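Re: that chain you flagged

S.,

Sorry for the slow reply, it's been a week of failed gels. I finally had a moment to sit down with the sequence you sent. For the record, here it is as I used it:
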Amino acid sequence: MIICEIEDLPKNKIIDFFKLHWGSPEMVISSGVYDCSVLDGFAVVKEEEITGLITYIIKDNECEIISLDSVAEGRGIGTSLVQEVEKLAVEKKCELIKLITTNDNLHALKFYQKRGYFLSRIINNAVEEARKIKPEIPFIGNNGIPIRDEIELIKALV
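Prediction finished late last night. Pasting the structure tokens below so you have them in one place:
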């Protein structure tokens, strides 16, 4: 598996990837509004196609994962990308890594908890606020669960 920095990939490939998986490169969460196509990150590329992509930001001594996508689950792509960000966060002297997901994303909750992340807080009705900026966020998510709340997960690095 070859992991590269997303800045080494053509910008249009990054934008197309986010449009396919999120509807647009814009990510609206309680920690901010982000254009994922300009964030730092890593990608797994196979035969010139992106098969996994992670973006993050670093503020002070914290690293926040903004997005993580893998087109082929169960092959270690997501795990490898998260490990790459964790390694970088340690190098940058971050004390904590965090991320936000929605209440319907049971797959992400399971994925991150299996990798040492803890539930930190629940932001009730956060998605209602996000829809004011990005109205295309669906009302019903995975497994027919209404999308309402955000869940923050954290992992201490020191």
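What I noticed first: The chain is about 25% helix and 35% strand.

Talk soon,
D.
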